[in-house]
Each structure stands twice: as structure tokens, then as C-alpha cells.
Write a structure and sequence with these properties.
The chain is 81% helix and 0% strand. The protein contains 3 helices and no strands. The protein is mainly α.
Length: 64
């Protein structure tokens, strides 16, 4: 749960910076947001969640 909240905050911050600097326009941001929303309701969502969890674990164990 903590990982998904952290990922949402991180990705939201990146999206806000991209919108502010003009690299991404509002229409593109809305499309990306809707894509993520609908992707989360598909069967591939657990696989994406597992990949993100494994990647976070790898970065955590990298410093040890």
C-alpha cells in the first residue's frame, strides 16, 4: 500500500512538472491519466504491480 501511494505521488509530481514546463499538454496528460485508470482495471494490473514491487525491492537491496 505504501509503495503504491508513493508511486502515485511521484508520478503525479512528474506529471505536474511536465505540464508546467510545457513538455506535455493538458490533452496528452488527460489521455495518459485515463489510460492508467483503465489499465488498472484490466488483468495486467497485478503483473504491473508485481514488477513495480520487485523493482522497489531491488533498489532497496542495492544499498545493502
Amino acid at each position: 500500500m505504501v509503495l503504491s501511494v508513493s508511486a502515485v505521488v511521484l508520478l503525479g509530481t512528474v506529471l505536474a512538472v511536465l505540464l508546467r514546463t510545457g513538455y506535455v499538454r493538458a490533452g496528452s496528460a488527460l489521455t495518459a491519466t485515463l489510460f492508467g485508470f483503465f489499465l488498472a482495471s484490466t488483468g495486467i494490473a497485478p503483473v504491473i504491480n508485481q514488477i513495480l514491487t520487485s523493482t522497489a525491492s531491488a533498489f532497496t537491496n542495492l544499498g545493502r
